[in-house]
Task: inverse folding
């Protein structure tokens, strides 16, 4: 009950809940693409490379989210173009950018004079510190993501399901794929503010993973994963409030537990339907 | 398209991946209304030839005209059914949505598909007998049903040429017959090319058969027994055997010595 009382009176908690809900929108829509297109690893690479941008922005005295947006977009385009245009192994490139971004970020942060607690909140998120400005930035990013997806829903679906046929239909597959990676980059920036760089992949995949167990279409998957994302962030904050647990970690633990249960349940239902023979 | 233009006109086409030649000096003309079967062993260049016709690959030498134009210019008037072993069967997409994809090139650029696109999709699904399955997830269908859905996707844009890559792999024999019956029906107003290694069923339906193993030889089906085909197909030893038979039946036939 204390949580609800605090929610009524404490603005920081209202902002945190609002941030969680806004983040659920982005992670539900884009996380669904990440899961069905099986590009979780790319998303992880973008997320970690972003620390480079945040570190540089921090060093230069800009808002770290600005640096994060720029770096996320750059690393998304770099990963996309290198994997599309060159014969390098895609997973090696992703691994390289993943670590390189973090290294650059750490160097810049270490050279920034003053107090370095911000590093922890970049890595592990601190939704309770969300400012009004953060909320507005997130709202704008959400709007961009939703508008682009509404405009290009059929192209995204075609490119994710069957690239070759999309190309045959005159879709500019490379451009659509790069656009999708850019949207993933923006989503990563949104999610970093909630759960931090390290745990972005979890929020990008777990709600969509749960949704995939109960839906048969992509848009259905998006809706269910938005709802489950909203549940995870809100319930995670509720659970973490009284014992003063880190909210990001609590959200992820809850999401992971639900995903695991849901997977087991799905597996059990499949086996019941088709008994294993032999 | 000019009335005396060929549906496909390939002259002296060669193609290789690296140094390895996959297609050598292939020439092929296809008239409107034909139903051509392309058979040959794995690695014989069948899929490569299709990819060149579809404009995914460029020939090293030789010329390729499709519907009187370059492959890239004609691609929107070709219906294509890929080998369906390549699909992610976990993907959350309904049969209806799969078929709509065949109208992507003609529909509005932004936003949803138009209502006439949906209407057209419903009609074509009825034609291939898949209307009752339209809300099913594509991955939940049987092999034969999936193939029908993919044929519907290829046909929904009213193509002048339908190209199918191994339409009967992963499909039980009853569905195979159904699929070929459906193709015969479609053939009444659409030229068809089918790539298949299914030697028993292809000759019964097609008007001509092309044997492709780096080089290409055309056989009118009436002169072609399935024995000839099987001989050509299975092993290199029997391939020599095939060559002999073909020569006996007065086909000109250039084969590599390898």
Result:
């Amino acid at each position: 009950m204390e949580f609800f009382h605090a929610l009524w009176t404490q603005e920081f908690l209202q902002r945190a809940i609002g941030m969680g809900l806004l983040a659920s929108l982005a992670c539900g829509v884009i996380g669904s693409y990440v899961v069905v297109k099986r590009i979780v690893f790319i998303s992880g690479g973008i997320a970690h490379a972003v620390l480079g941008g945040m570190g540089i922005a921090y060093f230069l005295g800009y808002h770290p989210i600005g640096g994060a947006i720029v770096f996320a977009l750059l690393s998304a385009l770099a990963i996309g173009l290198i994997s599309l245009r060159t014969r390098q192994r895609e997973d090696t490139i992703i691994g390289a950018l993943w670590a390189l971004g973090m290294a650059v970020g750490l160097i810049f942060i270490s050279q920034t004079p003053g107090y370095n607690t911000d590093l922890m909140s970049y890595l592990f998120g601190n939704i309770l510190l969300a400012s009004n400005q953060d909320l507005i930035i997130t709202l704008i990013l959400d709007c961009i993501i939703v508008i682009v997806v509404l405009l290009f829903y059929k192209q995204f679906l075609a490119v994710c399901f069957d690239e070759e046929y999309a190309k045959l239909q005159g879709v500019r597959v490379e451009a659509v794929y790069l656009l999708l990676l850019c949207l993933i980059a923006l989503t990563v920036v949104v999610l970093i503010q909630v759960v931090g760089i390290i745990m972005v992949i979890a929020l990008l995949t777990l709600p969509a993973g749960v949704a995939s167990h109960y839906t048969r279409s992509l848009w259905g998957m998006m809706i269910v994963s938005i709802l489950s994302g909203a549940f995870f962030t809100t319930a995670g904050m509720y659970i973490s409030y009284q014992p003063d647990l880190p909210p990001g970690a609590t959200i992820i633990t809850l999401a992971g537990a639900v995903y695991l249960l849901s997977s087991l349940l799905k597996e059990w239902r499949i086996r019941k339907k088709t008994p294993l023979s032999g | 398209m000019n009335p005396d233009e060929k549906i496909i006109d390939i002259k002296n086409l060669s193609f290789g991946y690296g140094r390895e030649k996959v297609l050598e000096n292939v020439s092929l003309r296809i008239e409107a209304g034909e139903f051509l079967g392309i058979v040959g062993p794995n690695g014989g260049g069948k899929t490569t030839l299709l990819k060149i016709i579809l404009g995914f690959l460029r020939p090293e030498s030789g010329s390729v005209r499709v519907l009187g134009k370059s492959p890239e210019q004609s691609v929107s008037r070709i219906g294509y059914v890929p080998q369906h072993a390549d699909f992610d069967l976990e993907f959350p997409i309904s049969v209806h949505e799969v078929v709509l994809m065949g109208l992507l090139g003609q529909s509005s650029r932004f936003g949803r598909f138009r209502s006439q696109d949906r209407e057209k999709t419903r009609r074509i699904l009825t034609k291939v007998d898949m209307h009752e399955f339209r809300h099913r997830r594509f991955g939940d269908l049987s092999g034969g049903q999936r193939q029908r859905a993919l044929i519907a996707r290829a046909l929904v844009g009213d193509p002048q040429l339908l190209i199918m890559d191994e339409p009967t792999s992963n499909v039980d024999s009853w569905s195979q017959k159904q699929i070929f019956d459906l193709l015969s029906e479609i053939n009444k107003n659409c030229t068809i090319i089918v790539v298949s290694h299914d030697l028993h069923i292809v000759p019964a339906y097609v008007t001509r058969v092309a044997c492709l193993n780096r080089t290409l030889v055309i056989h009118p089906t009436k002169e072609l027994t399935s024995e000839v085909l099987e001989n050509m197909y299975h092993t290199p030893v029997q391939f020599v055997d095939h060559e002999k038979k073909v020569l006996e039946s007065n086909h000109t036939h250039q084969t590599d010595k390898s």
Summary: Residues 8-87+164-248 of chain B form a domain with the Rossmann fold fold (CATH 3.40.50.300). The interface with chain A takes residues 54, 56, 75-76, 78, 80, 82, 87-88, 90-94, 97-98, 100-105, 107, 110-113, 135-137, 153 of chain B (CB under 8 Å). The first strand of chain B starts at residue 8 and ends at 17.
